Each structure stands twice: as C-alpha cells, then as structure tokens.
# Entry
Amino acid sequence: MRNVNRQWRLARRPSGNAVPQDFEYVEANYTMAPPGDGEIVVNNRAFLCAPTIRNWMDPPGNCLYPSINLGEVIMGPASGVVVASGHPSFCRGDRVATISTWQDYSTIRPEESMTRVLPDGHDFIEAVGVFGLNSLTGYFGIREIGAIQPGDQVLVSGAAGSAGSVAAQVARLGGCRVVGIAGGTEKCRWLRQDCGLDAVIDYKSEDVRARISELFPDGINVFFDNVGGDILQAAVDNMAEFGRIVLCGQIASYNDEIAPEGPRNMMRLIYGGIRMQGFLVGHFADQFDAALRHLTEWERSGQLAHREDVRSGFASIPSIFNSLFDGSNAGTLIVDIDD
# Structure
C-alpha cells in the first residue's frame, strides 16, 4: 500500500466542457481507517471515463441522476483490489469493479455501488472495458429495452463508442440487420470490418437523415440512441410501427447549459405505437453474472470486437476525461493508475 492518497475533487460547476480549473488536486498522507460494518476499502487501479460523469458535475435539480457536491471527490466507475473489509461478502485481496471515486483509496458500501468480484481471467482494464458497465449497458439496453428479435432492422447512434458498439454487435449476434452511425473514416471502417455491421453512416461526411431513409425503406424496428438531438429526431421520423427507441445517452448535449429537447412529432409515436424508454444499467444488476458470461464467451471466441483506449497517469485524469467530448478517444476510455 502507498502511504499517500491522491484525489481529484470538484472545485466548481463546469460551464460547457469541463476545464482544469473545475477540478482540484489534493494529495495527503494516508493511514487507512478500519471500514465500518458493510463497508470495504478499495485501492483503485483503473478508472472508466464515462460520459455520464459530466452530468454528475451539474448542480442538483429535478433530474434523477446524482450530483457531486463542490469539494467532493469525483465519482466514477473503477476497478481495484479490496485492502480491508467490513462486509461479509468481500475479503481482503478480492479484485472488484465498482462505482468509486477519483482517488487512490475509496471506502465503499457495495450494495450502493454495484460492486462485484471480478471473475477469474478478467483483469483490471477489462473490468472497466470490454466487461465493464458500458458494455453491460449496451447488452441490457438492446436486449431488455430494445427487445430485439431475429430479422429486426436496428439503428445505433454513437455506434463506435463502448456501449454503442456492444449494443450493435449483440443485435447482430441476435440475427438483426444493424446499421451504425459514427464519425470519421476510421471508426466507420472498424464498425464494418471488425464489428460486422451491415452498413455505417458517417455523420461527419454524409446526410444522416437522407441515409437513414435510404437504408430503412420499411422503417426502423429498434433505435439505440446514445446521442440525442437531430439524430434522435431523424430516427423518430423513420421508425416502423411498434418500433422501440432505447434512450441510453444524450452526449450531444451533455456540455450544454440547457436540457436536451425531445422529439418534435410526438403524434408519430402515438399513432405508430412506438415505445421510447430510458434505463440505467443498475436496473439489471441482478443479471450481471449471466450477461458477463455471454460477453466473455463472445469476446474470447472472437465474435465480439472491442477497442480500449488506455492512458496512464492519475495526474491527467481530468484532461483525459475530456477526450470523450472532442472525439479523440479511440474506444472505451480508461485511465490506468497502477503506477
């Protein structure tokens, strides 16, 4: 164990993109206090940079997502090792994935943080990468909320991202025809060649609305949305009767100071019997083990492609995090602090 605990705290509420001045770095000598009943102390080894963390930096309001208080350590998914336990289901030395905080040592209540022991063969990077919460989000979103059936016509926005790419491939493995939306030649190539999608729309160089109409002449059965905004509107306008819209994220507006707008033609949803539903991966926590068995089998057998953008350095976490919003990350964005 190190005798220093490094932290990144929220210094002020971001306006638009988070900037270095929004964070405060704190470093102090660390002496571990025994955990209370039902608590564990985790030495964090890797952090997932998840887009929703930006939402958590906003002030509390009428939304249901949590809000980090000013001066508190930034919250985020992580993997690490248990160094002390006051919980009957966790032992010292257990390798875990959890919702933690941006610091070396975090005291966690497992029932409140989706904490799970890593299966044999899963390392710390995989635990927040291909087998992490983003992949589980894609898995449950497309299967449980999207309720995919063989032959469904499926559209996924943000398809090169960690949740979107898994959702698209799970749909493909389920016998669906899948079209992804992504930005840039390389991401589109990866989706076609490595992920096996039937078609890809490059929003940076193509007319997304026109391409959706062209690729879905009979309408979209399932739309898995990570983006919101104009792309969500274009999908709504092309949904098939009794289609399902899975609301996973609205990354196009996470840095905006106003709440994202919903579709403008709600009567199409009504007359089409179209369902639009949001969800959180935690709603399916009791099914994580079964999902991870599927994901592991597909990934180890080469049926599931995944890219992890792993960067090093605790001191760089805030700047690395912002790569999510400028498009410079190439896969699931992870900070490895095992230094």
